[in-house]
């Protein structure tokens, strides 16, 4: 069993943590079963968000009366203090708790600080003073905002995309967090479903003794994989390294991470799915993606007017219209080869 101390929070958590975004896609009964099994199996850090539809509510139902058994993180996407307080009170009510261990600002475009016009950080300080939150965290997809948050020493945790596809600059964030005694929470540790070998992903992550990956889980078989890694953590052997090297060769670079911040599209193109469809077909075969519904979804790429809205919002500096055209050509080639 591998324990990670989350920086200045002092919280000692099991390295394999539970990302609760996907449970919004299953019934309350299924979610309750999965969450309780995760807790009983050794997971003790659960991450959710106000923006994940009913995820908080499901956590509240599953863990009622067990608040001393786990650490809880959630997020607010609010841009001002008024929205912050509304989100916080809603989260506390749905999660059936009096306090949240790590309350995170959800992907702000800037680094909130005391006294700025947003009032967000000051609201965080007040909530902490009132005992409603224990630690102040921030999530982001922008390297510059993330580094500013680290260097400010205002935050106890940073949540950022991190997997074995990450660049040297991403790894610099991990190192900087360690230097500043700041907890690092790794989102998208399977790169939005593009990585399919969870053991290799887990083994690679184990090289960093200050990183807590939150695995997005919605099915029992997925949970069972990660629970099996608690008593016997995977070792980064030659076979796993070969898998990693092959994935790096195919995937690293200008690919869509599937974060969804480019949306909404004025032409209703599902950019995060369409820009990765050919990769998903090869790596995580989907009947739906190959069928009429999937083909209709991809056909909407032809409606792209290249307005530039998505490119302006992409935190990775990608050119979504270019990615969409490229992926649509690959998608059609795969279907043609299969017919």
Q: Could you please describe the fold and organization of this structure?
A:
With 339 residues, the protein is of the alpha/beta class. The protein folds into two domains: 243 residues, TIM Barrel (Alpha-Beta Barrel), CATH 3.20.20.100; 68 residues, no CATH class. It has 15 helices and ten strands. Strands 3-4-5-6-7-8-9-10 form an eight-stranded parallel β-barrel, surrounded by four helices. Strand 8, helix 6 and strand 9 form a beta-alpha-beta unit. Helix 5 runs parallel beside helix 6.
Indicate the CATH class of the largest domain.
Answer: Alpha Beta
Count of helical stretches: 15
CATH topology group of the largest domain: TIM Barrel
Order of helices and strands: EEEHEHEHEHEHEHEHEHHHHHHHH
What percentage of amino acids are in beta strands?
Answer: 5-15%
- Count of folded domains: 2
CATH homology superfamily name of the largest domain = NADP-dependent oxidoreductase domain
Structural class: alpha/beta
> What strand order characterises the main sheet?
3-4-5-6-7-8-9-10
Morphology: globular
Mean pLDDT equals 94
Q: Low-confidence segments, ≥5 residues, pLDDT <50?
A: none
CATH architecture assignment of the largest domain: Alpha-Beta Barrel
Distance between the termini: 47 Å
Q: Estimate the helix proportion, in percent.
A: 40-55%
Report the major sheet.
8 strands, parallel, barrel
Radius of gyration from CA coordinates: 20 Å
How many extended strands?
10
């Amino acid at each position: 069993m591998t324990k990670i101390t989350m920086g200045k929070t002092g919280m000692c958590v099991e390295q394999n943590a539970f990302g609760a975004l996907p449970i919004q896609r299953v019934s309350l009964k299924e979610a309750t079963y999965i969450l309780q099994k995760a807790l009983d199996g050794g997971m003790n850090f659960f991450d959710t968000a106000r923006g994940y539809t009913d995820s908080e509510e499901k956590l509240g139902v599953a863990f009622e009366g067990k608040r001393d058994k786990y650490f809880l993180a959630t997020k607010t996407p609010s841009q001002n203090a008024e929205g912050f307080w509304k989100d916080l009170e809603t989260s506390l009510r749905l999660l059936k708790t009096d306090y949240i261990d790590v309350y995170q600002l959800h992907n702000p475009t800037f680094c909130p600080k005391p006294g700025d016009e947003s009032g967000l950080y000051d609201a965080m300080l007040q909530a902490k003073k009132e005992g409603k939150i224990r630690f102040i965290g921030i999530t982001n997809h922008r390297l510059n905002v993330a580094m500013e948050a680290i260097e400010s020493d205002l935050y106890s945790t940073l949540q950022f995309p991190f997997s074995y596809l990450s660049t040297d600059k991403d790894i610099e964030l991990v190192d900087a967090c360690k230097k500043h005694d700041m907890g690092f929470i790794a989102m998208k540790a399977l790169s939005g479903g593009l990585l399919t070998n969870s053991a290799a992903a887990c083994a690679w992550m184990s090289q960093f003794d200050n990183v807590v990956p939150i695995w997005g889980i919605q099915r029992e078989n997925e949970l069972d994989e990660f629970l099996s890694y608690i008593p016997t953590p995977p070792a980064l052997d030659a076979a796993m390294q070969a898998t990693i090297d092959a994935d790096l060769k195919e995937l690293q670079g200008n690919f869509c991470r599937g974060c969804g911040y480019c949306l909404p599209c004025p032409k209703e193109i599902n950019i995060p799915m369409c820009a990765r469809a050919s990769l998903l077909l090869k790596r995580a075969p989907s009947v739906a993606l190959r069928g009429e519904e999937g083909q209709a979804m991809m056909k909407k790429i032809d409606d792209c007017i290249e307005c530039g809205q998505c490119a302006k919002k992409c935190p990775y500096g990608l050119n979504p219209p270019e990615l969409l055209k490229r992926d649509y050509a690959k998608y059609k080639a795969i279907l043609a080869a299969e017919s």
